[in-house]
């Protein structure tokens, strides 16, 4: 919880210290696990959303905050080791990911008349990750806070001077923290997201 408080405090201070224009965005997020996260849940997810805000410090550069929620889940019969026990049978596997990330963005088109605005964004912050495993009448839960980073590439298609369509792709990497349900020593998580949404600028 302390990481959440620190992250929100930092972004409120940063954004409140400047008077330039502000961009907000709301996106539907699709998730695709990779690495050890994909070993636990290999199915893609279509349940996620993000909310973001960006303060323009100067033309072509902003700082901001992104928060979201991605749900990865899968039904499987694949054998797995949970808390030192090898389990077979029909299982429900779930991962809920809550990223809270500070970011900096570079926009490659700064003209107000531009209809197409590509950008590159770098995120850093914290991920709260909750794993759940269901087998029969038994449920196992595991949750940890992770430090993480996320590079992002995307673009905005302007429908008007204030409204735009947002499309982007992001690679999320949450570093090792705590323990994994399956007992692996390294508890990192990694997944890609594709996001489609709208932006509003003022």
Biggest sheet record: 8 strands, antiparallel, barrel
Q: Give, in spatial order, the strands making up the sheet with the most strands.
A: 1-2-3-6-7-8-9-10
CATH class: Mainly Beta
The residue fraction in helices comes out at 10-25%
The amount of beta strand, in percent, is over 45%
Please, what is the average pLDDT?
85
Predict the CATH topology: Porin
Please report the total strand number as a whole number.
Answer: 10
Give me the Rg, rounded. Answer: 19 Å
Number of helices: 2
The backbone outline, from C-alpha atoms, is elongated
Domain unit count: 1
Note the run of SSEs as H and E. HEHEEEEEEEEE
Which class best fits the helix and strand makeup?
Answer: mainly beta
Uncertain segments are: none
Distance between the termini: 32 Å
CATH architecture verdict: Beta Barrel
What would you note in describing this structure?
With 202 residues, the chain is mainly β. It has one domain (2-201): Porin, CATH 2.40.160.20. 10% of the residues lie in helices and 64% in strands. The protein contains two helices and ten strands; from the N terminus they run αβαβββββββββ. The chain has helices spanning 2-16, 35-40, and strands at 22-34, 47-58, 61-76, 80-82, 85-87, 91-107, 116-135, 138-158, 163-174, 189-201. The protein has an eight-stranded antiparallel beta barrel. It has a two-stranded antiparallel ribbon with strand order 4-5. β4 (80-82) and β5 (85-87) form a beta hairpin. The longest helix has 15 residues, at 2-16. It is elongated.
């Amino acid at each position: 919880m302390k990481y959440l408080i620190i992250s929100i405090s930092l972004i409120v201070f940063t954004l409140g210290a400047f008077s330039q224009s502000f961009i907000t965005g709301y996106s539907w997020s699709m998730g695709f696990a990779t690495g050890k996260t994909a070993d636990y849940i290999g199915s893609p997810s279509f349940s996620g959303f993000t909310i973001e805000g960006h303060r323009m410090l100067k033309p072509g550069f902003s700082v901001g905050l992104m928060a979201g929620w991605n749900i990865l889940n899968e039904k499987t019969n694949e054998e797995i080791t949970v808390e030192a026990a090898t389990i077979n049978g029909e299982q429900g596997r779930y991962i809920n990911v809550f990223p809270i990330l500070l970011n900096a963005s570079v926009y490659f088109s700064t003209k107000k008349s531009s209809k197409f605005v590509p950008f590159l964004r770098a995120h850093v912050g914290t991920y709260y990750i909750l794993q759940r495993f269901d087998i029969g009448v038994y449920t196992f839960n595991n949750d940890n806070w992770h430090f993480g980073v996320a590079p992002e590439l995307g673009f905005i298609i302007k429908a008007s001077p204030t409204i735009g369509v947002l499309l982007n792709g992001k690679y999320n990497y949450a570093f090792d923290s705590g323990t994994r349900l399956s007992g692996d020593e390294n508890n990192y998580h990694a997944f890609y997201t594709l996001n489609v949404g709208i932006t509003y600028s003022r």
